[in-house]
Amino acid sequence: MEKNNAIEVHEVHKKFKSYYDKSNNLKEKLLHHSRNKYQCFWVLQGISFNVKRGEAVGIIGRNGCGKSTTLKLLTKIIYPDKGSIAIRGRVSSLLELGAGFHPDLSGYENIYLNAAVFGLTRKEIDKRIQDIIRFSELGDFINNPIRTYSSGMYMKLAFSIAINVDADILLIDEILGVGDVSFQKKCFEKLIDIKKRGTTIVIVSHSTDQIERICDRSIWIEKGRIKMIGIPSAVHEKYLDTMEENRILRKRREEEERELERIREQERIRELERKELEKQEQEKAKKELEREKRELERKAKAAKAREEKAQRERKERIEKIELISSQNKKERTQERKQLESLRKERELLRVKNTRTEEDSVDALSLAAIEEEEKRKQEALIKKAKEARQEQETVQNAFKLDEIPEEEIWVEYYKKEANRLELVVSEKNIEIERLNSVVKQKELLLEKEKNNIREELVRLENVVMEKEDEIDRLNVVIVEDHEEMDRLNLVIMQKDVEIDSYRKSLTERNS
Q1: Is the pLDDT of residue 260 over 50?
Q2: What is the C-alpha separation between 108 and 141, in angstroms, rounded?
Q3: Is 114 exposed, middle or buried (0-12, 13-18, 19+ CB in 10 A)?
Q4: Secondary element (H or E) of residue 230
């Protein structure tokens, strides 16, 4: 580094990473590693310049060209990716409004904080604090918290601290435009005074008048490169001419783009109108085709529906005829079965009556049996009388006086046993007689039953003869019904054929 130089910048490059979607913590970086993609922008691309001791240099250029980045590199807030920067002496900077201040501290406390950042000790700050407060013109507001200050009050306090640090190099970035007119004038006078005392000053500003009043040289940075270094008036004239040319070119380009956009818009509108007309014509033709298609489909469906309806009606009528024919056949078959069943029942009844006649007992045999029973009853009555008389004889023949006392009971029981045997015999005879009476009565009932049975058989024969006649007539009726059903079926079939022929003639005529 040369002895007369306070700042030397040699081939400095600086890039920044622009992340598309940067993760905020380690978890997001691990889970969403694709968010860490970025694009590199080279803000400075090999700038080189020297600033001598006591020299004031102004840096100009359009927004984004790298002016503020250069000042941050000089203050070592950030470091270059390539190249080198050498600075000799204490540096004081005014880069951003409120930089190096704590908003909750008062202005008085922030003086100590900000001056300590510039490298002053507490004793040095105590010596300069009244000068700082006096120059800032804050008065009683110096004890209020910084957060209550306006932007002008911020700038006043920051500028007052920066110029009272007694730094060898003062760096100022776009901050002289803040504050009232009188304080701005006061600042310019102070800067000129500082410059006369040999302090090196580097100012970044868009105000060429301010730079021409303070600076000895101007550096014009364009797209990260130094385009021109020289006397401020010459550099500014070239810079302003270039900016004006760029403005005129940009305006002309914007007008051309607007004209091109207008032409494109008109072409787009015409194309849209043409497409809309084509679309309308296509839709109209499509609707016409669809209408014709629907009409043809409607006619085809109507004809198909008529044909299906006619076929369905014919089928229904044929099915109805077949159903009626089947029902009539079933009815006639059922009637024939019923007649056959009745005939069989009568045959069985005739056989039963015949068997009944064969099984019935002759009346003469019943009378002979009855006479025999009567004789049997008379004989039994006579026999019962004889048993009763014998009983009385035995009773009368028993005399107690003639029997010894020791045998009296034995004889008594013997005679009593004989008597009881006679009583039993008498009762048995009486039972036989009663059984004979019962049998006689049964014979009489059987006789009556035979008479009734014969009468029933006669009546049933008469009824069966009449039913045979009825069956014969029913058979004739069934045959007549079958003939009528056959004729009705033929008539219905002819009606279907006539209707089909009539419909075909109507369709052919239409």
Answers
A1: yes
A2: 9
A3: buried
A4: strand 225-230
